[in-house]
Amino acid sequence: MIYEDLKDKRVLVTGSSSGIGAATAAAFARQGSFVGVHYFRTQAGGEQTLAEVIKHAKGCLLKADMREEAQVEKLIADFVRAAGGLDVLINNAGTLLGRVNIEGMDLKHFEDELATNVRSTFLATKHALDSLKKSRGCIVNVGSVAGHQGGGGGSGIYAAAKGAVHTMTIAMAKEFGGYGIRVNTVVPGLIETRFHEKFSTPERKKKVAAETPLGRNGTAEDIAKAILFLASNDAANFITGESLAVNGGLYMRA
Ligand SMILES: NC(=O)c1ccc[n+]([C@@H]2O[C@H](COP(=O)([O-])OP(=O)(O)OC[C@H]3O[C@@H](n4cnc5c(N)ncnc54)[C@H](OP(=O)(O)O)[C@@H]3O)[C@@H](O)[C@H]2O)c1
To answer: Does ligand 1 come within 6 angstroms of the Cβ of 72?
Structure first.
């Protein structure tokens, strides 16, 4: 265990059927948290994550399309019923929907990219807020290095969506600070998950690793550790509105 205060915390990790979310759910379970594992299309992945969670702690499995308000509202209500409340919301569900340049992108694709990454974060936060007020809990959003540098190779609107997540984090931190709720973003660089199995060739991944000062791409566990840090009041009690880059130095800001 790293953070004693995460024991028995009630944690919902959206998009935990795969990659960063799956590693994060398992990491919270190892701290003794009650973990809500969420999936949309990948039920087998959700079941696998839950099996890992219950080796260490309690948990439950929930399904929702995070773009749809009624489904998100039900997801949060079902989690709160199962766990007895909500202390930590990890807004991780999201993805690049395809490599398409802005010049050739139709409105439907544009809107879906925003719904998948920005609307999802807004909706989960909106419906979790009453519970988080009661627990004086916290939120960790998942942004992207693309949100800092504009992406590349047909990921421009995904990058813009993640930039909106970064800015929305600051707005939420300002608005919810009075409720004792901290809100931060973890900002991954290139992380080896299903995401880049789909959208990057092995050559591209190799090239990025070579350009990264620490000489490798990241793992889902690298991000999970940063999320635990931001979620722990012992570790991060006075940190809010922050974007924590976890990218091996791929993109650095002063
Ligand atoms: N990998 C990277 O290099 C990287 C870099 C920066 C940021 N990120 C961000 O990190 C987060 C996790 O990505 P990952 O790398 O772990 O990718 P991943 O392995 O593909 O996982 C994506 C997760 O998001 C869920 N999801 C996608 N669309 C959804 C929707 N409409 N409703 C509900 N759930 C949805 C998926 O659920 P189902 O499969 O069950 O549908 C899955 O659990 C994403 O927000 C991504 O943008 C990743």
So the answer is: no
